[in-house]
Amino acid sequence: MSLVSLRNVGKTYQSRLGAAYTAVRGFEMEIEPGEFICLLGTSGCGKTTVLNMLAGFEMPTEGSISIGGAQVQGPGADRGVVFQGDDSLYEWLTALENIEFGLKMRGVAKAERRDRAHRFLELVGLKGQERKHPSELSGGMKQRIQIARVLANEPAMLLMDEPFGALDAQTRSVMQQELLRIWQETRKSVLFITHDIDEAVTLASRIGVMHAGPASKLKGVIPVSISGERNRTSDDFIAIYRQVYGMIREEVALAMQRQG
Amino acid sequence: MASAPTASARKGSGWFESWGGMAIGFASFFVIWHIAATWLVGSALFPPPWPVFLRGIVLAREGLLQDQILASLSRIMQGFLLGSILGVPIGLAMGSFMPVRKILEPYTEFLRFIPAVAMITVAVIWFGIGEESKVFLIIYTTIFIVIINTATGVAGIARNKIRAAQSLGASRWQIFLHVALPATVPFILTGMRLAMANSFTTIVAAELVASNDGLGKMLWDARLFMQIEDIFVALVCLGLLGFLVDRLFRWAIRTFAGRFSPLL
Ligand SMILES: Nc1ncnc2c1ncn2[C@@H]1O[C@H](COP(=O)(O)OP(=O)(O)O)[C@@H](O)[C@H]1O
Ligand SMILES: [Mg+2]
Which residue intervals of chain A bear CATH 3.40.50.300? Predict the structure, then answer.
């Protein structure tokens, strides 16, 4: 059985003035345990909407989402979320305290949570930064804290919304490699949102490409079966890149048309 | 403490930045005052700093000055603390729950435009010219600023902070205690700092109108008996007190709450 299944999921936003906007409709997807899924789509197509519903932050207005057979009712510690910006970190806590936040909330004893937080702080390469506050850290470091904070809490699944979107190309590439390494070590299911084809082909075991909005859904799913280290200049990398690019090109054109 | 390195890094690097500049600033103030009083005005109605200083010493020797200062300060402190203790929870509730906000907003939005100074007459009629009326007025001048700042702080918490806590397994109560409250601390402290400044204005006005002691009363008596230097002693005391209390406040914020807001 799949870990996650989204069946015929739709989301219509109701504005205060009464206008309705259907961002997603008829969205179908299954996620298997240990899979790394990249959700790719043009800006504004509804990627965040899908992730927010899976996280339980928003309720679908149509269809159903279940995890491990149970309907999603709201947010839960089984799904760790890494947000796009850094405004989800707690400025008044140190890096270490941010990482142990979930453990503290769930009543893990102090010595043990310190220990675990230290381990994950090291795992994301932040050794030596434990007593710094988010305001004293760079953008890349802050994203690492977010990732460590979620990993330390040991969710069954990671939901990541363009986590590296704001990083420079160098840092981004380093972070991608680290995320891959962590994923290979922990084998968690990951739903990773991006609008960068290169990033998707670098990371994913499957890539889901979305239609342009409104009423967006999956246009197709492309398995990425590149064994070993992924190299941007290798033939199979380029082949998949082309395939994805072909799918998304029309959607970009459509999206631009619709935006006028 | 974890915040210590932050605090020291923010301070000026040298002696000049921390104290020297301020000393020169204050010195220049008294020099300009002296020049203005002696050469530009040259009237008995505008004494230069030195005689004012001497008069201050005399009043302090007699213990009169301390009495007035203490009278005013203790009223400010009582009203300020009570106003803050009442204002913070009300502000938290208003910022957290829409219905509470809707119900209480008419009060805050209406009353905050009636300045405490305008309430002096009512306060005196209700509470007499003793301590109660002064403390009431300071509470009044404190509470709305604290409420509004606190409510703004709570309502403005980034949604992702709450969402992150939810998906890390925090309960509603934990989110309030560990996210909403600490995220609001800088706003609460800012509100209190502004309220403290207002308290000075209010207490002087209240003591001018109706009081048996305090710096405001001292100003009023000095005018009646044309003791021009006493007026200036009171004025300088007000400035210095306000300055010191504000410094103390900033120091306390940095020392005890610096981690909540690296920017304050
Ligand atoms: N809370 C909301 N209310 C109304 N419309 C929304 C809301 N959130 C998102 N939308 C709209 O839904 C569409 C999809 O948004 P989003 O899921 O954020 O796209 P993406 O993450 O792919 O860029 C956009 O057109 C956006 O304007
Ligand atoms: Mg998005």
Answer: 4-78+156-259
Nearest-atom index, ligand 1, CA of A162: 21
Q: Is 3.40.50.300 the CATH number for A4-78+156-259?
A: yes
- Does B169 lie at the interface with A, CB-CB under 8 angstroms? yes
Distance from CA of B167 to the nearest CA of A (A): 5
Which residue in the set B168, B171, B179 is minimally distant from A102, CB to CB? Answer: B168
Distance CA(A180)–CA(B141), nearest Å, equals 58
**For residue B238, is it within any domain?**
yes
Q: What is the mean pLDDT of each run of 10 residues along chain B (264 residues)?
A: 42 68 90 91 88 93 93 94 96 91 92 91 90 94 95 93 96 93 90 92 90 91 91 94 90 74 52
More confident residue, B216 or A167: B216
- Write the residue with the smallest CA distance to atom 27 of ligand 1: A44
For residue B28, give the 3-state DSSP assignment: helix
The closest-lying atom of ligand 1 relative to the alpha carbon of residue A58 is: 1
Distance between Cα A11 and ligand 1 center (Å): 10
Q: Give the mutation target among A38, A48, A59, A209 for probing the ligand 1 site: most ligand atoms within 8 A of CB.
A: A48
Measured distance CA(B240)–CA(B33) in Å, rounded: 15
pTM higher than 0.90 for the full model?
no
Does the pLDDT of residue A254 top 90, yes or no? no
**Residue B3, pLDDT score:** 40
Closest Cα to residue B132, out of B145, B115, B120, B146?
B120
What does DSSP assign to residue A211?
Answer: P
Query: Do B172 and B240 contact (CB within 8 A), yes or no?
Result: no
Where in the sequence is the domain holding B107, given as residue range(s)?
A: 47-257
Task: Name the helix (H) or strand (E) containing B26.
Answer: helix B21-35
Output the ligand 1 site: residues, CB below 6 A.
A 13, 15, 21, 23, 41, 43-49, 213
- pLDDT given for residue B5 in this prediction: 44
